[in-house]
Structures are given as C-alpha cells and as structure tokens.
Amino acid sequence: MVAITPDILVVFAVILVALAFFATEPVPVDVTAIGVMVSLMLIQPASEALASAGMLGAPIVLFESYPGDALSGFANTATLTVLAMFILSEGVQRTGIIQLLGAKISTFTGDSELRQLGATVGVVGPISGFINNTAAVAILLPMVTDLADRGQTSPSKLLLPLSYASMFGGMLTLIGTSTNILASDVYSRITGEAPFTMFEFTALGAVVMAVGIVYLMTIGRRLTPARIEPRRDLTEEFEMAEYLTEVVVREDSPLVGQQVQRALVETDFDVDLLQLIRGESVFLEPLGPKEIQPGDVFTLRTDRNTLVELLDVEGLDLVPATVTEDELELADRGQNLVEVVVAPGSALVGESLASASFRQRYDATVLALRRGGELIRRRMDKLPLRVGDTLLVQATVESIERLDNNRNFIVAQEIERHDYRESKIPVAVGIVAGVVALAALDFLPIVVAALLGALAMVATKCLRPTELYDAVQWDVIFLLAGVIPLGIAMENSGAAELLAELVVMSGEFLPLIAVLGVFYFVTALLTNVISNNASVVLMIPVAIEAATTLGADPFSFVLAVMFAASTAFMTPVGYQTNLFVYGPGGYKFTDYIRVGGPLQLLLGVVTTIGVAYFFPLT
C-alpha cells in the first residue's frame, strides 16, 4: 500500500478545491485551471523554505523539472493541436459550406419531426468527427432552429439531440474533440507508447454513435420535452404580450422638444425603447439623439405597473394594439428580431447588460432573457449573464450581422450573410482532408499536420490573418494549459498510484471488464459536474496505474475514461454543447437527467463491452 505522504495530501487538497471551483464556477473554469497551476508552482518553493527553517521534514516535490513541468501545458502538443484545430474549424465555417448543407436538408425534411430529427443527428455526427464538435454545434444551431421553425416543430425536440449527437461524432476520430487529443497526449507521456492514431478508435466510436442515434430516434425522442411551442412569432415564444406596447406623444406632452436620450432613456423607469414611428418612417437604434415631436409613436418594452407610472408622468397615450414580430421588423423590412445565445468564453459572462453597455456597444435592445426554462422580461439590466443565456434582441439588420460575426454570441436563427467565401469551399475542405491524411498515414505528427493546416488556411485566404486569434477559444486553451500540470503532480506525488490501489481492491471481487465499467461511470459522473478535460487529467493517471497493477492493457482503460469524459449527457454544465442549447431549447436542468440519464447508462454498457471487444483487456 502506498504510504500517504505530505506530497499526496497537498495534491489531494488542491484537487478538492479545484473540484469545488469547477463544479460551482465562482470564476470561469479556465481561471480555476490557471489558479491550480499557479498554486502547484508556489507549493514547491514554499515547502523548501519551510524545510530550511526546520518546520517541515522534507520539501514537497511535485515537479521533476521546476518550473518547466508546471508550465509545460502551454507548450504541450495537445494544447497546440487543439489551438490549430480551432483555426481549421473556423476556416471551414467561413466558407459557408455547412450553412449550404443545412439549406439543402430543409428542402426534404418538411414538417416531419422524425425526418428533422434524423437530419439533425445524421449531419452533426459525421461533421463532428472532423471539425471540433463544439464548433459544429455553434455552426449548426441556427440551421436546426430554422428547421424547426419552418416545420412547425418545437426546437426543444431537436436541440438536445443536436448536442448529444455532436458528442457521439466527436468520438469518431482523434481530432473530433479536445478531450481525445489531451487523452492521447497524457497516455503517451505516462506510458511512453505512441500517441493515438487518427482512426484508432473509429470502429468503437461508430458503434457508440449508431447506438446513440437509435436511442435519440426512439426512446430519447419520447423523453425529450417540447419546452418551447412551435414558433409562429418570437414575441409569442417569449410571452411578450404584456411587456410590449406602443405609446403616442400628446401635443401637450412635456417631452416635446427634448432628446430621446434625456427624456426616456436616462430615467429610473424600467423601460426599453425599441423603435420610433414617425409618419411613414420607422427608426431603430440609435434613437438617443432624436428630438421628440408631437404624434411620435414609441414601441416600448416595460411592465404594466411601470407603464401606468410613465403615462401619468410623461404626457403619453396608450396605443391599444398588440405588438407583433412583424411590427418590430417594419424599419427596413429585414430580420430585426433574433435570439442571441451567450457563447462559452464570451467577454459578457459575469457582466450585466448595463455594465457591458450592451445597447450602446451593439446598437441593439434586449427585450427578454431566457435562462433554461426561466423567462425574464423586467429588471434585466443588472442581471449577471451566464453562458447559454438566450437574449431576445431587436436591432437593425447591420447590427444583427455584427452580432453574428462576434465570437461572444451565437445568433440562433439563420440570417442572410454576404461574407461567406464559397469559392474557397474546395480549398478549405481539401486542407482539412490533407491534415487528416498526413496524420492518419503517420507522415507527420498530428500537431505538425494541424499547425501546417492552420497556416495553409491563411496562405490560401480561407482565413484572414486578423481572424486567427478570434478563431481560437482561448478559455479552452488556458484550461488545458492549467490542468495538465495537475496530472503531472498526481503522478510524481504518488496520488495517482494511491487512488489506483483503492480501485484495484474492487478487482478482488469484480471481473476485469466490470472494473473497466467502474472507470467509465466514475469518469462520467465526474465529467457531469466538472470540465471534461479536467476529468481526463485526473482519471487517466489512475486508470493507467490500476490497469498496470491488474495486469491489464492500459490502453483499454484509457479509452474507457476518454469516451466517458467526452459523453457527459446528464447536466447542462457537463459539456459546452449542452450549454449552447440550454437557453434556445428552454430546457430545465432535470431534462438532461431525464433524457441523458438512460443514454449515459446505455452507452456506459455499450462502451465497456465495445472496448473489451475491439481492444483485448489483457
């Protein structure tokens, strides 16, 4: 039995604190990861100082090369490969090929929910094997929302399957998800074996995807709730009838002659101005500089009590009519009303609409906010935003296009864009195919092939140099760089070996395949509350130690951990794609357990048996 040393106790303390922060997210997960890295870096010199002062028997040594090992996450091949894959995915996205594919799909799905569901999971699965699955969901979410809209289907019936199917597809190849790339690197570093090849586990991934799709098309389809009614009008979907109204300025109003900004915006009333109707003209943001005239009609977002106060004070009369989506799109007869999802890594996370100066920065007005199944339509300005929050936004066509191009948001409807580089479709697809081929044929290491492909995207003008940095999800990069040293510290301290011995004890009364299943389900449960990349870093060293002790093949145990960490179905926070669809689908937290729980159990059994079948355990 491994002796419990101060080194092990310190590592366990760091892990417990990190798990608490990952689960509760008082700060973003990438900040927690960097905090873990810095903490581990401080422990070693602090313990040396205490040992020199006679207050500690021996210094705590977590890294053989200090501080090189602690900082190695930034130069790690997994980190650099993931960075390059984000750039490759962006190059493909900029061509508009996936949007063109979506348009063709909608021509034959019609109003059949089953065909819409089949098209959704049938498209996102294979695509997610070759571009990052998180990027695939971000690209396809508007297409699927519009597919549901045109077919008069609840978007809730399609969006959760979209997220789940992207996870299945991510397990088809090494580059499908950052988790696979990280797992390959950790496995290679600990065992000294070669990293995973491009299609090494594709057969197992195909089985998992096939079983998962059958589940989603049958049992899952019945379990997935229709939280949002089929949409005829976005104002109806967000139940805005009591919050949208029109008022007309009377001849005797004290507002006449004043600027809109001073008279109506900079007030204590909980009111948002959506548009100004003056004669035959309709004006959107910016409305602030305009001078108020008698007969002006303002469309407002407010509640009934505030409206009564406003009418009493400001010399306004109520226009007795219901405001619809069509009326909010009178300004330029374009798409002025859209749902906008706060994306992972967004600079607005933790900010409020007021502190982020949303209206001024984006020339757009937020009418309502949906957080899962909760609708918020008043006093939104001070509410801190979260990943997955869905904003009902009204703006000009130009402002909506800017929001669509902004990495902080995902516009949940397809909008007409003119900046797709369709002539570059063959080039971008060819570059990705070349990267896959070079890595699959072992001509170049995956990190070299991916970086070469990223460079080729710029050289062929599929991407502009200024777009490179926006293409990368830097929160994922810093998360990887921060958690990789934790895995190294677990190995060097003996913490991984101690945990492995505890698991091995179950091997005395369980068959080997059952121990493999234990690793799958423990990793799956862990991933549903913390980051999938953090789960891989924590569990793979333990899995390798346990497999070695049991006389099993470590590769099989690593695969079980990797598949479990990439398929977290039971919570919205378990995987980024689950958060993407949380707001647009109007889901409740329990919906993920209801639909994802049976799926997690089913795929746990399928994956465990599949690993044993394709990759002998001993």
TrEMBL record:
Membrane-spanning parts: 33-63, 70-88, 117-141, 162-183, 195-217, 427-459, 471-490, 502-523, 555-575, 595-615
Domain RCK C-terminal: 232-316, 325-409
Keywords annotated in UniProt: Membrane, Repeat, Transmembrane, Transmembrane helix, Transport
Species the sequence originates in: Haloferax denitrificans ATCC 35960
Main localisation: membrane
Pfam families membership: CitMHS, TrkA_C
GO biological process: potassium ion transport
Location of the protein in the cell: Membrane
Membrane topology: Multi-pass membrane protein
A Gene Ontology term for the protein's cellular component: plasma membrane
Protein known as: Arsenite transport protein
One MF term in the entry's GO annotations: monoatomic cation transmembrane transporter activity
